[in-house]
Amino acid sequence: MPLHTDLQIRQQGFVTVVTLNRAPHNFVDAALMQSLAETLQKLDQQDHCRVIVLAAAGRSFCAGADFSVGQGGAIRNDLAHFYAQAMRLFHSRKPIVAAVHGAAVGGGLGLALVADFRVTCQEARFSANFTRLGFHPGFGLSTTLPRLIGEQKAALLFYTGRRIGGAEAVAMGLADELVPQGDVLDRAIALAQEMAESAPLAVQSIRATLRRDLAERVTAVNQREMAEQIRQFQSDDFREGIAATAQRRAPVFTGR
């Protein structure tokens, strides 16, 4: 390792820090998701890794998929492959702490919710902004977000596409700890080290009990998400959402 030039891996005791290195915004694609999935799979087999910290370089944790190329870029053109790789992340056996120091938007929010815990800061922004782009949420968020914060709050975030800061995210249970921005990674590592001091077989078995069939449920709901996304990618509203985002203006949707 690393298995991808845009992933950096370092070991700190029994904690492995995996860093997305596509600064400034860490947009994701199928290749990066595949490499991340393969990295987590390999770490599952390594005794020196008991807990994983998922971090990111640059301004954002992950600003989602890059829809700026052509008619939606590589993610749209290879959606099935992208999601197949993303769903593999939920099969990781070891606890994951996400260090969310900046924006976690769209697919970036989905990635943050793969983790068991999230350490964040006031400057971070969390958003399921899919409806502001004109299409259905993805990345299994239809399951992971309401599982974490409840159906009512999840619906509010989905329907509005609003961005919330780190303090509000912690208040609603979307994140677990709020620290100064410069301390996010160190605190995430400290939390991971605290877990790594526990018996690893016990921790992994408890995690498996608590998450039970989560990977299967997320994968199943993602099939519906993907079908809705593919259909809505043909809409005028999708084209308007992408254009408005590129032009940094408010979208004008027509329902077509």
Short recap of the structure:
With 256 residues, the protein is an alpha/beta fold. It has helices spanning 30-44, 73-77, 79-88, 107-112, 130-133, 141-149, 151-160, 166-171, 184-196, 200-211, 214-232, 236-246, and strands at 7-12, 15-20, 51-56, 96-100, 104-105, 117-120, 125-127, 164-165, 177-178. The protein has a single domain, classed as 2-enoyl-CoA Hydratase, Chain A, domain 1, CATH 3.90.226.
Q: Provide mean pLDDT, rounded.
A: 94
Order of helices and strands: EEHEHHEEHEEHHHEHEHHHH
The CATH class is Alpha Beta
Please state how the strands of the largest beta sheet are arranged side by side.
1-2-3-4-6-9
Structural class: alpha/beta
Measured by DSSP, the beta-strand proportion falls in: 5-15%
Helix content: 40-55%
CATH fold assignment: 2-enoyl-CoA Hydratase, Chain A, domain 1
Task: Kindly list the characteristics that best describe this protein.
256 residues; alpha/beta; 2-enoyl-CoA Hydratase, Chain A, domain 1; 6-stranded mixed sheet; 3-stranded mixed sheet; 9 strands
How would you sum up this structure, described in words?
The chain has 256 residues and is α/β, with parallel strands linked by helices. It has one domain (1-181, 200-256): 2-enoyl-CoA Hydratase, Chain A, domain 1. It has helices at residues 30-44, 73-77, 79-88, 107-112, 130-133, 141-149, 151-160, 166-171, 184-196, 200-211, 214-232, 236-246; strands at residues 7-12, 15-20, 51-56, 96-100, 104-105, 117-120, 125-127, 164-165, 177-178. Helix 6 (141-149) packs across helix 11 (214-232). The termini are far apart.
